[in-house]
Amino acid sequence: MSNRQNWSKDLEGKIALVTGGTKGIGKAIADRLHAAGATVIVTARNEPEQVNKPYQFIGADLANHEDLERVAAAIIKQYGGVDILINNMGANIFPGGGFSTLNDEHWYQALEINLLSSVRLDRVLLPAMLERNSGVIIHISSTSGQFPIWESTMAYSAAKTALNSYSKSLATEVGQKGVRVVTVSPGLTKTEAMSAFLNDLAKQAGITFEEMTQKLFDRVGGVPLGRMAEPEETAELVHFLVSPGASYITGANYFIDGGNFPTVR
């Protein structure tokens, strides 16, 4: 999908920040927004695999308050703010096994990485959007926020559920001031992080990667399209949501899950 030609330059002149933008869904989003003409800034803990990427990279751990303030200050100094903010940072790096395996530190980390880093970055970069009466914020959540799996995503799911609620509240607050806020909830997606997650679960269960993948598909109720999503497919949705074509969309949570949920929502 990334090799498509003649993409519309509907984001020409826009400044976009993509957090967690060097791998997986974040990288695909950064590439797609650049292809649409945006000036893209990427921040992550790890540097891009290719150093000559067509966007600016700022290394930072946004769960660290000082790093977050440094990134925001650098962007405000150079660009005066952003038009598009993609809060993609997040991770499920916490022990599986349910409530007894999770201590206070795990819960604090889950909230810092998957909720509070987005809240803080919004708080710093949103004022410039409000001054211009224009801007779009996308929070990348997860279907886990509505479908928690106690044995593997308890803390992560709780934090993503909180992110969903915060995102809806923020959309309601700033909608009349020209800023749109939208949530995107990917389901099972073919990324390095997902592969590592499944490998760890497979080792713990003493089964193969393929068997664990099928168990996860079964655990979430099946995926009618029969496969995981490609990161580029989520990037296409995000591009639409930040484009002029989505000018009347705010406060919604878009699920991109291959038809995973067996219920109407």
TrEMBL record:
InterPro entries: NAD(P)-bd_dom_sf, SDR, SDR_fam. SUPFAM superfamilies: NAD(P)-binding Rossmann-fold domains (SSF51735). Pfam families: adh_short_C2. Gene3D superfamilies: NAD(P)-binding Rossmann-like Domain. Belongs to the short-chain dehydrogenases/reductases (SDR) family. PANTHER family: 3-OXOACYL-(ACYL-CARRIER-PROTEIN) REDUCTASE, NADPH-DEPENDENT REDUCTASE BACG. NCBIfam families: PRK06523.1 (NF005095). This is SDR family oxidoreductase. It comes from Mucilaginibacter defluvii.
